[in-house]
Amino acid sequence: MAKEYVAPVGEGIHAVRTGDWRTQRPVLDSSACRRCGLCLMYCPVNAVSRAEDGSFSIGLDYCKGCGICAAECTAHAITMVREARA
Amino acid sequence: MTVLDRLATSQDLISPGISACVGCNVELTLRTVLKVLGPNTVLAIPPGCMGGVGVVGWDKESGAKVPVFFPLLDNTASMLAGIKLGFKARGREVNVVAFAGDGATVDAGFQALSGAAERGDRIIYICYDNEGYMNTGYQRSSSTSKGSWTSTTPVSAEGRGGKSQHRKDFPLIMAMHDLPYVATASPAYIPDLVHKLERAMEVKEGLAYIHVYNPCLTGWGIKPEESIAVSRLSVQSRFFPLWEARGRKLRLTVRVDKPVPLKEYIGRIHKFRHLDEERIDELQKLAYERYRFVEEMERMGSESDGQAS
Amino acid sequence: MSRVEVINGNMAAALAARLSRPEVIAAYPITPQTPVVEYLTQFHADGALGCQMSEVESEHSAMSILTGASLTGVRCYTATSSQGLALMYEPYFRASTLRLPIVMNIVNREMISPQTVWGGPQDSLTLRDAGWIQLYVEDNQEILDTTIQAFKISEDPDVLLPINICYDGFYLSHMTERVEVPEQAEVDAFLPPYRSRHIILDPDQPMAVDPLTNGNLLMEYRRKHMAAQQSALAVIERVDSEYAAAFGRSWGGLVDQYRAEDAEYLIVSMGSVCGAIKEAVDTMRGRGVRIGLLKIRSLRPFPRKAVLAALEGKKGFGVIDRNVSFGTGTGILYQEVRAALYSAGARFPAASFIGGLGGEDLTLELVASALECTVETVKAGKTDEAARWLVRAKKGEGR
Predict the structure, then answer these.
(1) Chain B residues touching residue C70 (CB < 8 angstroms)
(2) Cα distance from A54 to chain B (closest Cα, Å)?
(3) Can you give the CATH number for the domain in which A42 is found?
(4) Cα–Cα distance measured from residue B300 to residue B250, given in angstroms and rounded to the nearest whole number
(5) Complex ipTM value
């Protein structure tokens, strides 16, 4: 049951499932990845993360499929692939 | 620590799912800004794109992991000045930060910002300039560039029209308040933006101002995957110079000695498609004049006494 | 042990503010409020006022700064008049709907146009539906006492609303009177420090302030706000009693009455003109007319029950309005009183008067004529639907 407030405030986080939006998804070829980190720096939704061992991966929960990572990747290690019908 | 290390290990303090357009470089800018600022931050988001996409939240939920609020369109800097004074009254140090569109900054909110700047209110004010009131349907602002189609400066079927005045040089106007730190930034130059944020955070007294230039994908008509490439062209064509200033001592942080022809930038942007060669040349001339002005200021600053920054 | 000072209304307000220990002040000068800002900045420069002060560039920013500061949970104060109040309307409406207990003196001044700087409560009355508590006072002692009480009323957990203490420009702001000023220790004992428990911007407890809100939820907040205004009725009375117990002076709470108990006719009004009305009442009483004064102190929340109780058993009343309500033909207070009567099914013959606008004096002569006219109107069983205008006789013309 939501909290009662006297004045207009909000707590907790409202998250839209933006992963549901996309029509194409990024596919990262780890063997081609040079680990330059540009995809992480330029992903607008912060979907790219770097693991302890320095390898990169792209989370798909919120990825909108914009294609910036593929466009900026210096090694051309990311390809945008059309989402199949469910 | 490199910029990449910093961004790879800092917490993303904005909700993971906000309804910004696919590829929006303002979303990129906002997430980057909060990673650098950290959790000891109060964030002001006036009405505009970021508010509209849910950063302040909906009903009883928030859109950020730091305290965040909606100022009014015209009073962001004043509310933040008050918040800073409130914390000061109780002896606390908190980052007090605005993330405001050009509408809220160069138009309606200008008085409040100029007042805060003149008084020396210790806040960090970041403007994301997408050349218009984009969230409400792409209306013009005084930061919209000359010739732009906007919904309030539209273009006839024959290609006549578009905004008749060029954008005012707002970052330089802010620099004329003799502030401790003023800078311009671009989402295509993330390490440059991060360094500028760090310098803004180091300021002890007075207002720090950063003006980010964010080509708007939906409002200007740019392909999502070209979001960063087009932003890069805005800098590489000299259309938007990247500099920083302390007082009136200014220095370029990205020198553009061999500019890309402006029509390469213009050509990727739908809102300019009615511009003929003459109008593009005029815009290029305006851009070069402004870049030269910045170079002159840099020269004057380094002449007066030693280093520029 | 309080001391006696001889001071004007603006100084009374500034001293009350200083004694109440605000933590942030942001005020922009405007005639006739300007001396308040000057006194406060002088106190601050002298080290007698330990607060954060902002040299704002407009009233819009003054209220913006205070809504920001109040959101961090600190006590805030400001003052303004007419054009300044109009300019700050945008953040003013928000101060109440965000439930921020800001205290603001309004040095009542007529609204432009025509071009004017002189006294009258049109400025604050026009904004009576913006959700603030509004109290109107009659003299400088009342300014000081009520402004101190204002912090306690607004910060009460059942209220949590900003409050205006309104006093007539020039008539009170620039007029010198004898005022008893309490000691700091006495006021500290009366006013505990402010702590916000309902809304805050604090990295230690992150929350969103003012998310985009759908209509259903907005209506909930409005209901709570309306309920808080109703709760304020009892709080205003209680704080007046507590102040009387601590400082020896009561102003009546929601309303005050002068020679009204056994009266047959009542004059209803607010503000400094009540002084002249009391004089006129005494004169008519001297001739055997049973007339009295009902002085409205709280305009918002409107003290419906107190007004009904005061009018019970009376033959009728007259209202002297120092303001206009465009489109209704009468003044604002006249309508407010009549609306309150409707709920009790009570009907009285009543006279409506408008006078003293834009600094035009409401002389004893004019006030006396209003009292006479009220008695006549009530005796004739009439109820005014259009106001009678109290104007000076032109030279050479008879009245």
Answers:
(1) 82, 86
(2) 10
(3) 3.30.70.20
(4) 9
(5) 0.96
